[in-house]
Amino acid sequence: xxxxxSTGLLTMMLEPTPALAMTLPAEVxxxxxxLELELSEGDITQKGYEKxxxxxxxxxxxxxxxxxxxxxxxxxxxxxxxxxxxxxxxxKSRAANTRDERFRSDLHTEAVQAALAKYKxxxxxxxxxxxxxxxxxSVEACTPPGxxxxxxxxxxxxxxLNTLKRPKRPPLREFFVDDFEELLDVQQxxxxxxxxxxxxxxxxxxxxxxxxxxxxxxxxxxxxxxGTTQPKxxxxxxxxxxxxxxxxxxxxxxWTRSQKLAYTLLNKxxxxxxxxxxxxxxxxxxxxxxxxxxxxxxxxxxxxxxxVPVPIEVPLTxxxxxxxxxxxxLGSCGVTLALTTDACQKGLPKAQTGEVATFKGWPxxxxxxxxxxxxxxxxxxxxxxxxxASNDIAYIEYKTSKEGSTMxxxxxxxxxxxxxxxxxxxxxxxxxxxxxxxxxxxxEAGLWxxxxxxxxxxxxxxxxxxxxxxxxxxxWIMKVHTYKARVAVVxxxxxxxxxxxxxxxxxxxxxxxxMLIVADGANPWSISSCDAFLNVFQSRGLRPEVICPxxxxxxxxxxxxxxxxxxxxxxxxxxxxxxxxxxxxxxxVDTEEKLSVLTVQDVGQVMPGALVCxxxxxxxxxxxxTDEVGEICVSSxxxxxxxxxxxxxxxxxxxxxxVTPSGIxxxxxxxxxxxxxxFVGPDSLVFVVGKMDGLMVVSGRRHNADDVVATAxxxxxxxxxxxxxxxxxxxxxxxxxxxxxxxxxxPDASEEDSFQWMSRVLQAIDSxxxxxxxxxxxxxxxxxxxxPLGGIHISETKQRFLEGALHPCNVLxxxxxxxxxxxxxxxxxxxxxxxxxxxxxxxAGKRIAQACGRDLGQLEDxxxxxxxxxxxxxxxxxxxxxxDHPLFLVLNAKGTVSSSASCLQLHKRAERVAAALMGRLNTxxxxxxxxxxxxxxxxxxxxCLYAGCVPVTVRxxxxxxxxxxxxxxxxxxxxxxxxxxxxxxxxxxLLKSKEAAAAVDIKSWPTVLDTDDLPRKKSPQMYKPPTxxxxxxxxxxxxxxxxxxxxxxxxxATSALCRSxxxxxxxxxxxxxxxxxxxxxxxxFALWCLCSVYSGHQSILVPPLELESNASLWLAAVxxxxxxxxxxxxxxxxxxxxxxxxxxxxxxxxxxxxSCVRTCMVVAEERPRIALTQSFSKIFKDLGxxxxxxxxxxxxxxxxxxxxxxxxxxxxxxxxxxxxxxxxVYVDMRALRHDRVRLVERGSPHSLPLMESGKILPGVKxxxxxxxxxxxxxxxxxxxxxxxxxxxxxxxxxxxGEEALHADHFNTKLSFGDTQTVxxxxxxxxxxxxxxxxxxxxxxxxxxxxxxxxxxxLELRGMRYHPIDIETSVIRSHKSIAECAVFTWTNLLVVxxxxxxxxQEALDLVALVTNVVLExxxxxxxxxxxxxxxxxxxxxxxxxxxxxxxxGFLADQLDPIYVAYNM
Length: 1463
Description:
elongated
């Protein structure tokens, strides 16, 4: 753990302590708050802020001499950087935390506590979580009685806003252009940052390799010598899990058993009569960690057979962390055979055949068991070839990179021999010494000391398996005592573990040790383990000078090691370095402020025969200056040679040529990069401060993952998280690295505690490293992927984090604090006047963006219905002229006709209704029609017109959901001032039922008239309206923003609407069209109730509700009736896509054929949903649906039909009446945010596909206007769509919820240009674009693109966002997100996602959602709410009701699975 000391006095004097803050007068507190705000807005520099703040606080801060005692930090921190951890004599209970307390590095903890003291006041909102997700129950999850429901959410949002008000890091000046005007901040180097000032370093040379007489020419030669001359000499002792020796392998046995195996491998294994292996082939060694004997025999057996061993871990399951990468390595090495033990082979996962299963990503392997009975004795005349060490490959060691890929490092025979020679000399090994090895014998130091160098010197190795260490952490110390071992090879973890258990043993002595090699001495926090270990065991005979940290890497092998005391080397060194300096790559010993320092120990001198230098870690390998941190490089005969099969990476790592600042190579020899970051200190001692793998470069400053781990663990670690089960890594989000901390939470920690701990960790890291943590996640105990021998598999953890497969139980994201490179908020420029815009457009050669459908006056058609001013007259005329002509068929869920009506039948039913109304009501009275979709609805509509009443169609309440649906019915009835309700018998009962009474006041219903059994009476006479401008009907609809708006449709507009649709879709009596829409408002209502009567075509009506029980109903009907034109809604299309996607084959067998369809139009009041229409076309292409058939329409409240794509297939197209295909363009999403349209190529970054909304109807004119100046805009400019047409509605009847709403919606004029035309404002943003296509008249076709509703847009950072764009990104970010809706609340972006999957995935979504919105939209998500599927409310048109959702969220009615508040 990093030891850090801190005085922190100066910094702490500037922060008013909690006690002080309370005593400040109110006006001072207010002024301080104003200052904070100025700083956060960037109106004042950090320096100015501190100066003004200091002045304000000066009178209230106690003088330095009498420092407030609560601020004084324990003096012993300055006293020394050595901690005396004396074994306390008091008999404390042996509870886990008391042990842990004893160990933790006090200095660091105190620095952290000091840092945290500054943050006491800041209250962060705790995430809320549904009970079932909790690992433990949480105090928070239930609202205390007596608290108003919505207080919880609102308070948390308030807390969140308070935490966000605090000053950010100083604002940065410079920007770089991200391929567009949206400028991302680029971090400029701070001019005051420390820079290296030392001389250029000189390469450091180790002492020469001594010449040893009688030194064997190769490792197999050494084995042969000891095996024949000293066969009884012990080579290796293996222990069981109780610590008892199970077997001692002698040099004689190792020699004979290795020869047997070598002979068997070369001569007894064959495939197709060819030997399976030839010298030079690679062989996998798969041996468990508790069987060093079998491993050693297999390793030397391969060397004797001149095969190349590739030792790997035992794969335990089919999907071990990183196992796939190991498979890739084996495949690339061409491994076909794996050696293993009998016990291990039995434990491997098996396939059905009984053979070992093939692991994911692995090549096919033959498994050979090396136990005695499978190997044969070689004949007398067979001898293994014992050659001199050459440059051929001896073995391959695997290594996992930071990204998780696995490389094989090749070590040649000569390098292996040279490394043994160098280690023997550096460690002073002598023949016959005893050594205990706790490390993994398959790789790195465990292999170098415990398998290779030991044989070179005929040493006796006591191998301590990891499984024994877990049971008894003191085992290695006991073995040193028992065997009087001279050398022990350990990691700092082993020293730490033994400290926890050392009280159990009184009578052990470590006086025999001349060297305690700490293999991970390069880890910056190994020093505290060494110090603490020495303090405890010095009294047991451990001499301080025998502790020998060393530094090594897989590529360069041993780089440096502290020599044993008898070699007369300089005393060990210690450096106390400023972390701030280190983050800039500069060595500064002990800075003035001392808040955060790193204490590191040396790792001794360079290896014999090696040349070492330090080079810049990035870019050209320039030699560093003496006070600069860089990557250590080694040139010697004892390093790895290459990455197997990766020549490019090999050149980069194993053949680096360090150069002087002038570019001259410093030596003719190539160097190997060690991936260790460090410097050379006084006395030529090497110091390591971190590893390339753990390096995180955030905003240009370097941070070391290990240091961040140390800080996190210093925050009362043992109570909440497991020590050593913590991973720190960085992910790249929005052009910078972001730090992520993941830890395993103890099962007994409560939500509240964990959250407290998380907040404190964030603050500690912020203080000590001056860097923000992007995400802190806690996962349940034992769920992080493990590395083979304990520890955490970092790259796999990172992979899971990015894939959303980590399943945390707690998560805290802090994008607000650490994302400092967002683009500047857009400043609105003073608007250019509309006139100058037009002039500018004309100069630029752009036309004004306006377009119109065909001119009604020019269209000659034999339209009989044109003679009539009123739609009800058309019905009477049809009832006389073609009484039996069928107008309507209604289908039920089975697909059979449930009711139908001819012209005469409809007229007769309407008459009966009129007769019932005329006695009761006055002309002009409003009547609510509450019917399920069917003929009744249509007949009563015409009955009202016959009687001179104004019909209002209302969706009936849902019997299973009265609580939410009935109030809407009530509201429409009230708002429309209906004096009477017409409905069916069943609904009449429902309206007056007990259940209804619970939802609304049923006494206040107006007269309810049941029309089921009306007498067959003819009305005395029809009502004739005096003028077509009179009101025909009211069309009520709830907008997506939750506003109930009723529009007035006059008789003239009604007829004009019907005529326009008739002309566009070429409707006439012999046509049939199928309609799967709700009949209550907008175009759905017009198609159900008006168009058939006007044009005389037959309508096949499919109520969308019936699709819930039979998804194929609509398409089967289209096929059965061979319908050419059909209409549906997006929700219907979605039901078909989701419900029938996998059933097209079954439908084909039922003879469903869609090749008859010329046009399938989706009726919508939104931007076309391209992805949905495309997947619909793709799925049903198999049933003959033409991909050109599907198109969209556009209408809105002011005009229900602005665009309809007419037939484009068949004869009509040839005759030229049809319009061109709808075109799709790709626009730059970033330009849209600035209200600009910039066309880009398909697939370019930030591109958004938009499909035109169909062809503009006859008689309709459209113009694009600036929302603020109301001036006309040019082509391809984003503005509000304004529409002028004879079928515009005449006005709002009332807008419930916004009384003052926009009289100018229906009659507004341009402020410039054509100021005469009266337009209606649609409330939608869009643009017009003249295409290359021509329509029937030879005119170029103007395409209208709808971008989204103006009311729905989000104004964030001065830019305009469309919720659907953010939602699309979010849905893409994880497979379990079924739906998403976003809205803003007090300038915070709230993202609600529906989770389709197990609740344990809920917290995975938080980071993914935050990442994708940052990356693609440059926005910081304030709150992430995870809910169940179906929570996001959707209206009948399939549009999301985001405002209802927002109200539900704020009133705490969503029952979310999890709510995360991003800091």
